[in-house]
Amino acid sequence: MVKKHKVVVIGGGFGGLTLVQKLAHEPVEILLIDRSNHHLFQPLLYQVATGGLSPANIAMPLRTLVSRQSNCRSILGEVSDVNIGRNEVVLTDGDHFEFDTLVVAAGAVTSYFNHPEWSENVVGLKSLDDAMKIRWRILSSFEKAERSPDPQEQMRLLTFVVVGGGPTGVEMAGAIAELSHHSMKNEFRNIKSESARIILVEGNSRPLSMFREDLSAKACKDLEILGVELRLGVQVKDVNSNEVELSNGEKISTNTVIWAAGVAGNPLGASIARATGVPLARGQRIPVEADCSVPGHPNIFVIGDLAAFIPQGETQTLPGVAPVAIQQAQYVSGLIHNRLIGNPPPPPFTYFDKGSMATIGRGRAIAQVGRFGMTGFLAWMAWLFIHVLLLVGFQNQLLVLTQWAVNFVTHNRGARVMGRQDAWKS
Predict the structure, then answer these.
(1) Given this structure, which CATH class describes domain 116-261+357-424?
(2) Tell me, what DSSP letter sits at residue 282?
(3) Rounded distance between C-alpha atoms, residue 343 and residue 197, angstroms
(4) Which CATH architecture has domain 5-35+77-110+264-341?
(5) Catalytic (active-site) positions
(6) pLDDT averaged over consecutive 10-residue blocks of the chain (426 residues)?
């Protein structure tokens, strides 16, 4: 019996899942390893955090997704190391699995810019747990303010600081503004939810700096209409349990700080760097060759957020966004196919940028494809359509579309369930 080629895929995100599905009809044995049991649609995490969607709306069990793929097995586990000499991945519990080809699509984690102590007082947004923690923090702040007899303490509790003016930060700030100014209006007796302050802090001179200046300016205007206060061209200097200090000297008294300012490669990258002898690039990412392989190790590939891929003729690495991970997965699956049948490798990987989109709030969004830009309701509808289309699973697509329709008509965010205090108080 001919031994099948073993492909181990670490991470069931956009890159890992795409690769697995592309290899569905290849004569290989695939082992998909993820520390969570689900594929997560991260672009909509902020809606879970603000009560617009339920967690199950944007997640799908990995076992369900590969259940009909006979050449794939999915296991729950966390990879801690890679043994290059034995071609094995090692899990934190000591289990190890052999591979002929290894594809690492482990994603990224929140980066606090060399201030890990800030993580005690702020919450990032990379997982369902993060989203539920943020939801608990936001909703419990309103509940505490309702009970507080002190106007200053009420104001502190009703001040929400979002750090980072990229798409995640802008979308989060806009969603909190809509939640407080519309969805929860008239629900309290001792406070007015619409009096909440939402402050967006961005180190650049404008948010959404990856867009054209006129589109970024439109986003600023939309944010201000929603009641979001902008702090541009300043950085966070310090964070504690009661306030945020900015580089311009301003101190903001707050109970809730949401971190959307930066990411770094998954810590697994450091282990792979030590094992392969390849030094990590900026952002704790692994430099890769033109075919997405680790230098000197043609059977080990890194794709998605963890890969530091510099296109030919360019000086900047590709951004850590879903389209990059998906296209790299498609490329690597084709390369593996060619190797299996003895064909020459494909040309070097090239990324096709299909454009960028960001939503600011109800009926407000911006989009850019090349030189073409779009704003307002039309851009918002395009954002809705594309995100529903990219959701994994027809059931999730239908549920999200229905929930959005209800939210649009009623202004209500019906998924405002906090859970137990001891589960999300951190």
Answers:
(1) alpha beta
(2) T
(3) 60
(4) 3-Layer(bba) Sandwich (3.50)
(5) 171
(6) 88 96 96 96 92 89 94 96 95 96 95 90 93 94 96 97 96 95 91 96 95 96 96 96 95 96 91 94 95 97 96 89 95 97 95 92 91 92 86 75 68 62 46
